[in-house]
TrEMBL record:
Keyword Signal in record: yes
Gene3D superfamilies assigned to the protein according to its UniProt record, in alphabetical order: Tgt2/MlaC (3.10.450.710)
The protein's name in its UniProt record: Putative phospholipid-binding protein MlaC
InterPro entries: MlaC/ttg2D, Tgt2/MlaC_sf
Signal peptide span: 1-20
Organism: Vibrio aquimaris
Keyword tags: Signal
Amino acid sequence: MLKRLLVSLALYTVTLTVNATDIDKTQPYQMMKQVSEIAFNRLKSEQEAVHKNPDHLKIIVEEELMPYINEKYAALKLLGPNLKGAKREDVGTFINAFRAYLVSSYAQVLTQYTNQEIEFGPEPKIDANKKITGVKVDIIDSPRPNIKLEFKLRKDKKTGEWKAFDIIAEGVSLLSSKQSEWSTQLRQEGILSVAKELEELAARPIRFESKDK
C-alpha cells in the first residue's frame, strides 16, 4: 500500500507542471491548478511518442516539472546535519545529482500514467509573512480508494514566487523518507558517495514494466 501510495504521489508531482508564461507563481493554489490541467493534456497527447521512446518522459519532466520544483532547498533539507563542514563544491555536486535523480525518477513514475483524475481541496489562506504553505489534493484512482496528498511549497522572499519542495501522503513526508534512507550512507561515506549513486540512478533508461508482473 505504501509503495503504491508513494508511486501515485510522485506521479501527481510530475503532473503539477507546465511550460507556460502566464502561470502566476505568486499564487500557489491557482498555479498548481493551472499547471496540472495543462500537464495532463500534454501527457495524454504525447502517449504515442512516449511509448515509442520512454526517455521522452525525461523531456516532459524537464520542461513541465522542474521550473516548479525547488530542488536546491529540498536537497539541502535532505542533507541536514551533513552540511556541517561540507565543501561548497561537494554540496553543489550533490544538488545537481539530486536534480538529475528527480528528473529520472519522476519520468519512470510517469510510465504508470493511466488518466487519473484529481480533485483539489479548499484554497489555503496565506498571509503576507507566511513562507510555507500546503495544497491538499485527492487523486481519484478508481476503483481503488482515493489517495490524499498535501504538497508543501516554499515562498522565495526576494521574488515572492512559490515552488514545491515536499509531498506528504497520509502523514508521510517523501523528503523525510528519503532523508532516512540515505542518512547512514551520507554520514559514513560522505556527500560525494551518495551523489555518485544518484547520478548512476539518473542515468538509467526509462522502461515500461510488464503489466503481467
